[in-house]
Each structure stands twice: as structure tokens, then as C-alpha cells.
Amino acid sequence: MTAEPNPAAPAVNAPHPGFDDSDDEINLGEILATLLENKWLIVAVTTFAIFLGAAFLYVATPIYRADALLQVEDSKSSGLTALKELQPLLGESVSVAAQMEILKSRMILGRVVNQLKLDIIAQPKYFPVFGEAIARRHAGEDIAAPLFGLTDYAWGGERVRLESLQVPRNRIGEPLTLVAGENGAYRVYDADDVMLLEGMLDQPAEAGEYRMFVSELVARPGTRFTLVKVAEQDAINALRDNFNVKERAKQSGVLEATLEGADAALIARVLDDILNSYVRQNVEFRSAEAENTLKFLETQLPVLKAQVDAAEAAFNNYRQSRGSVDLTLETKGVLDSVVTFEKEIISLQQQREELRQRYTPEHPRIQAIDAQLARLNAKRSQSERAVATLPATQQQILRLQRDVEVSNKLYTELLNSAQQLRVSKAGTVGDARIIDSAVVSSKPVAPKGVMILAVALLAGLLASLVLIWIIRSLRVRVEDPDKIEKTLGLPVYATVPHSPAEVALARDIKHGKRRGELLAIDFPDDSAVESLRGLRTTIHFALLDAAKGSLLITGPSPGIGKSFVSKNLGAVLAQSGKKVAIIDADLRRGHVHREFDMKREIGVSEFVSGSAKLSDIVKPTKVEGLAVVTTGQRPPNPSELLMHPNFAELLEQLGGLFDILIVDAPPILAVSDAAIIGRHTGATLMVARAGKHPIREIEQAVKRLAQAGVPVKGFVFNDMDVVRQKYRYGYHGYVYQYTYK
Prior knowledge:
Layout: H1 28-37, H2 39-59, E1 64-72, H3 87-90, H4 96-103, H5 106-115, E2 120-124, H6 131-136, E3 159-166, E4 175-180, E5 185-189, E6 195-200, E7 204-207, E8 210-218, E9 224-229, H7 232-242, E10 243-247, E11 254-261, H8 264-322, H9 329-356, H10 364-388, H11 392-426, E12 432-440, H12 449-474, H13 481-488, E13 492-497, H14 500-510, H15 519-522, H16 527-542, E14 550-554, H17 562-575, E15 580-584, H18 592-595, H19 604-609, H20 614-617, E16 618-620, E17 626-629, H21 638-642, H22 645-657, E18 660-664, H23 673-678, E19 683-689, H24 695-707, E20 714-720, H25 722-725
Parallel strand pairs: 13-20, 14-18, 14-19, 15-17, 15-18, 19-20
Antiparallel strand pairs: 1-11, 1-12, 2-9, 3-8, 4-5, 4-9, 5-6, 7-8, 10-11, 16-17
Helix pairs in contact: 2-12, 5-7, 5-8, 8-11, 9-10, 9-11, 16-17
């Protein structure tokens, strides 16, 4: 049962004075309601985004990663223990950061590019977008059959390999097209389809400045391949972009090298070649250092040998001229000191000369040697002053014997150093070694399927929200009956919720599956019918002060449900014991007869034209107390027909037979018929549909009727989405279902 509202109470949807916070705060309920209203749009956009993500995963080229380990040792700790004394001559250790930069240098990567022909790109030409993805999934050694009869494209199994490719300098980087022929023959064209040369497999081909050697060609005749000769620097840069080196643990000296690419076998081969090239240059560098030092020592050995011979000859000549001369104990002590100082000074001078080949005099090592030389020279001067106090004979024999011993010791040590360097050069192994060779990941490292789909999901949700926001921004339509009351100052007598049952019923009637059925009769517990029952009592009080018991129902525009309101309101009024007549005054597009399973003929048009009597046009329905007057034949001049005095006479006569007349009129903004009819009715109700009209349209409709002298009594707000509206924060018009079960 439905309680009747108190007529003395304010309208259900009347705004509460001083209470309207919907415009000042973020309305979370409104946001939720909007999302629910557009849930299928969100699902559609998100599904489409996920589909695009899945399509991208299908066509995207999988990227693999090869990794290897390299150990770089401190050069000061490497080599034979017996050769550690030579480390000052072999230089300092190189930092790990420097080794990482060497690995990425043109010296290393350029060797790899040249050895593996990475500056030559030769690949099949695939069908745009998805052709490569299809070819990549081809299994077996046989060539895949062409799809869609497109034999120019590769569809799987095609291969080509070039051992060499030379093009003019101005054609470097430009794509060429190789077309496979019969029995290993091929032709090469430029971008303008001009043939450049012809060739055969495993045979050099040459034409002008173009030279190439194709070592492998597996394809059906007519298949096209793309060839590009890349500039060496561009090939090095491309390799460097995909190559990465990092130290696995701080101060560990262990470097992890990785290389990414689409060809798993190729990247493993390239990475191994990079590491091997690095190790080779490291050994060559160490060997070159030892060789350069050895060359320096070998230039000094003849000089020292001559000094030894000269010193021994002078010493022997002096002894022969003076006879045998023995050194005193004191003179021997001075001699040992002088010899030691001389040897150390000459050794430091040799080291300084070696360092001067690589460093400036301001280098700390050279400055340290200069300081040591200054101290030794001072001590040598002190020893020479001690020599000056000796007898002349002792001084001369001491100097000669000093020259002999110093020269012999220096020559012997330099000879030993040269021999050690020869051994070092022969056994040089470098300070870098490969720990793990390149191994390729078993699965692609990119693109990451889960991540791509997750991003697609989020992007789809975001895009759908943006789309909803754009739609909401562009759609300035009334969805809340409160806005009508606040803007126009007219009451909303009833809010009729959306009825799925009415949608299904109207669809069945339109397709001829049902006849003569009304929502108010077949679905009396529907929430829309309950709202019309509430309107029934409101209309009773609205017509109390009216001169006539007739009600005009119109609206701003077509398709708003005014006929639905008219026929079902008539039914619920008849169920309350009233005698009700529904007059279909929409002489252009009226269709009330269809809902009651009647014929259009013999109705308003015939009565006004005088071809039918009142008893002929009043047609009873299966609802007790409810009658219908159809439109009759469609006249050529509906407005003039409604202005005829006979139409007013029709309403007058029907008013004497029935308690309430409901006149279903055309929309006021479409034609002027409603303004003509409204002069002969007791009250006018305007039907507005949720989400159908801008507020300006409703204002214009009310203004149009007012200009014709027809005041609008109130509104019926039709087809409101109750599920959405119940989430609206601050909404005051609630609709409930309360029925017997």
C-alpha cells in the first residue's frame, strides 16, 4: 500500500531554505553515481585499452639479455713475485671505472663491429604492423606459405646473410631492397626501385661503387629483404646504447657486462667478442709497456758497458804506474759510502728519465724522486769532503776504484732488470680475465607482459574517467529535480523513476508482441506507478481552484515520456473511482491508441470537422472508468483544427461526462499546439525527462506557454535513475518500493 501525501505539506521535492552544500564541496556521492551511470563506458574503454596492450604484446619484438662476468685485478698485485721490484717501471694500477670506460670505448666496440659485420643490416621485409609477429611465431625450417597471396613479404623462415656490403659514401644509411630470385639469384634496388646490381649466392657482386657478397639466402622467389650499410660510428653508438657495464660489488673488481637485443644468439656472440677484445688489448697493453721499458734499458746498457770498461782501464793503468797500492780501512769505509750513493743516484736518475716520458716535472712521483736525489747529493758531497782529507794517492785510487765498482754494479743491475723484463714480456697475461662467458636469458626481458597489461588497464581507466569528465562537462542537462524548483520556482509534483518493465513493455508493443497493456495495470507494484499514485492526489488538489476539470500534459521536446505519464496517470485515476478520459491531442504523432490496442480513425479530427459525433469518438478501455479519444485521421492543418470552436466544444462536452480530462499535447517548443489547447484546460503540467534537457530549454518551454496565457502548474520529472540518485549527496527526493510480499 502507498500512503497518500498530506496536501497541506510542502512539495516532496521542495528545497530546504538555507541548506545547499552541493555546490561548495566535493560531492563523492555524485562522483560514485556518475561512475555507476557510465559503468559500461568504463568497461568498454578499459577493455579496449587492454586489447591494445595485448595487441602490442603480440606485435612487439621480444628483447633478450646476455650477461657475463669479468674480473679486473690490481696491476700492482699481479705478475711474478720476483718481478715486483719492476712495478715502478711498469706504471700504476688503473681504476675499475677506467676499465668500464675502456670496455665502452670505440677501440673495443669498433673491433667488434668490424669483426661481426654489425654495420650491415640485412633482414626480411615483413607485412606492416603484424607481419613480423606472425613470422616470428613460425616453427620449423621450411619457409612459411604467404598469407593473402602477398609473396613480396616474408612470413617466416626467410634468411639472408651478407659477408660484405660497400655503397657510395652518400648512400650510407639509406635502405636498399634485395629481391630473391631463382636458384640463389638476386637483384638489388634503391629506394626509387632503380636496379643497382644483380648477383648470385656465394659469389661477389659488383656494379659501380656497389659491392656485396651474399653468403646465405633462403627465401621464395620474389621475397624482399631490406639492406642498410650503417656508418661505423652509428653502429658503435647503437651497440653502446644496448651495452652496459657495472661493478657487481663495491671494490670487488668484478664487472658485470650485459647486452640486450632481439637476436638471442647474436647478442651472446657479440658480448663474448667484446670481452675477448678487451682482454686481448689488456694483454697487448701490458706487453707493450714492458717492451717500451726494455727498449729504454737496452739503449742504456751499451753506455754503461763503455763506462765500466773505461773505469777498469783507468784503474789498472794507475796501479801499474804507481805499483800496488792498498786502501786503508778508513779509505775503504769512505769508498763503500761513495759507491752506495753513486749507485742510488744513478738508479733514481734512470727512474726519473723513465717517468719523464709519461709525466710532467710537476707530477708527485717525479717531485718525490727529485727530493730523494737532493738528499743523496747532499750525502755524497759530505763523503767527498771526507775524501778530500785523505792523502793524494789514497784520493786518486779511491776515485778510480769507486768508478769501477759503481759502473760494475749499475751495469749488472741494469742487465738483470733487462733480463727480467724479457721474462715478464714473454709471460704477460694482463690484469683482466673472463669469469663467466655470455649466457642469454631464457625468457625475454622486454616487453614485460604483466606490466604492459597493468599499464593498459590503468590507462584505460584513466581514459574512461577523462572521457566521462568531458561528456559531463559538455552535457549541461538537468538530472536533479531540485534544479528545476530552484531555478524556475515551480514545484515538481512527482519524480517518476526509470522503469525497466516499461521499457520492455514498450518494446514488445512496438514489435507487435503485446497489445493493449499498461504498466499501471500489468505491473501495479512498479515504483513508477507508485510515483504516479502520489501525483494523483496532488492533481486533485491542484484542480480544486480550477474552473475546469481538465489537465494538459506537455513537454519541451519529443521523446520525454509525456504519453506514458498521460495514459498511466489516467489509469491510476480511474482505479481511484474517477471517470477519466484521455484525449490524444497530438494530431501529428499521437500514438496513445496503440497502447490501448485501438485504431486511430474516428477521433478528435473527425469530431472537430463535424464528421463524427461524441458517442462515436469516446472509446472505452478495459480499465473501468477510463475512456480514450484518439487523434483520428492526421489532418493537413493540425494547429488550425485545434483553434476551431468545435475543439473547445469537444472538451466542454467531455467535461460533462467525465470527472477528469487528461489532454496529451505535442511538445511546446516543437509546435504551438500545446499553447492553443492550454487555453481550454483547467491546469497544465510540464513533463521533463532526466538528463534530456538543458535548464534553458525548460525555461524557454515555460516562457512559451506563459506568453500564450497558459501558466504551468508544476512539473513531472520522468525517468530518473534511482540507483544513481541514491548516491547523490544532499539529494532530497527519495523513492522507495513498499509492497506486499
